[in-house]
Amino acid sequence: MSVYAVEYIKDVEEGEMAAKLFLCSDGNIYIVKLMSNPNGKRSLFNELVAYRLGTLLHLPIATGQIIIFSKHKLKDPKLLKRMAIEEGPHFGSLLINNASMYTPGKLNHCKNISTLPEIIVFDHWISNYDRKDEPQNILISGQKPYQLAYIDHADAFHGPGWTIESLNYYTWNSQVFWGSTYDEFVPFIDNADPFGLALIKLESIKDEELAAAFGRDIPSEWQVSKEEVKTLLFHLIIRKRQMKKLIAELRRYFPIWNSSKV
Description:
Helices cover 35% and strands 16% of the residues.
């Protein structure tokens, strides 16, 4: 069932994509990233595909949804012209109630810290560099024990400017990345095999499941061709098979793992 934007609530102050809060036809509030965002339409494709890949891994990623704007569905049809919003499909992330930005001091009180190694593996698989240094891409929700949630995947696949040529290059030329936010995870996940379960989880995903995650509903307005989708799928399948070797390069950041036998 299609979800339509119904009523504008307010602008979202954080982030570089000029997102806006909208009440939508399913009764939920979404953080909507528009086709006119500064990073381009392909960033919406990145968000949608990354969300669907994350759900395959059962990661706590905010629910993603194609949000359609139509003057016939909005309470204020003049809003489109006033805010320079195109009619058609945009991308929305379901607003997480009672959420605040991650702080390392709250990790002790989170009930799903087991997802920390999983999100590092996920970030490497989809080449999303943001989170390693940007704690605003992690939310803490609820009361103690808190729940971690992961947001913002517009920069997946080495950024929204990816091309067939860049994907083909990075399929065979991968590097690990690290940053201050990941550093804060180490005391909570360092052991003799911190990524073992996360890698098993990733490797268990079948290639057909990956293909199905793209679906047939990718909006043509987002300007991603079938050939580009095919190339990205191949890229993800090959990278999935490379992840065990790639993640092993992170060993030097983990004192216990690094001191254990290979």
